[in-house]
Amino acid sequence: xxxxxxxFIWGALDSVLIYKVLRTVVTYELNRRRDKKLRAEAVYVIRxxxxxxATYALVILSFAIGVYIIHLGEDVGFHFAxxxxxxxxxxxxxxxxxxxxxxxxxxxxxxxxxGEPCNDTVFFPxxxxxxxxxxxxxxxxxxxxxxxxxxxxxLVAEFCPVFGSYPLLAMTRFRIENDRWPxxxxxxxxxxxxxxxxxxxxLRYFRYGxxxxxxxxxx
Length: 219
Description:
2 domains, alpha+beta, elongated, 6 helices, 4-stranded antiparallel sheet, PH-domain like
């Protein structure tokens, strides 16, 4: 009897989870398509990469559906290891999945906007960036990361892995070579940013240490 109840509970929970995961993935993909169209307006939106989103989705569904299948195959009743831990791990990964899918960094002519579902959206003008710090991680299990800070040490943006940072790194290179931050509403500046927004044209400037003294405003 208890096992039958658990089958119904996990069946209902799995149905909700499948709906939530699929809806989140579809929303994420629609946002990525909109982001690509914004490039024509010199607006760059960087989101969590697809591999991370897919990994979270597979782990969540594997835990939830796995427990359901165990109850179908065996009369285990309410089992602490299968039910309580399974529910806890599903909720744990669901939180990180939801947070990763909703996190973004938007770079526009107005400035840099960083949004996370569990934190307030923050905004900085582009010329508030003072320091770029490249963290070269020798541990293969962890990717290299990039951090952008204001003069007062406030975090403007962070990227891990670093490939999402190319547009912002290209703008920082522009600042170094031209002694001014680019005007993203200027087609000539934007064309140069797009030409440099790749690994080869940016990382060699930043990967061997910290660059500072870039800010034009103090924040």
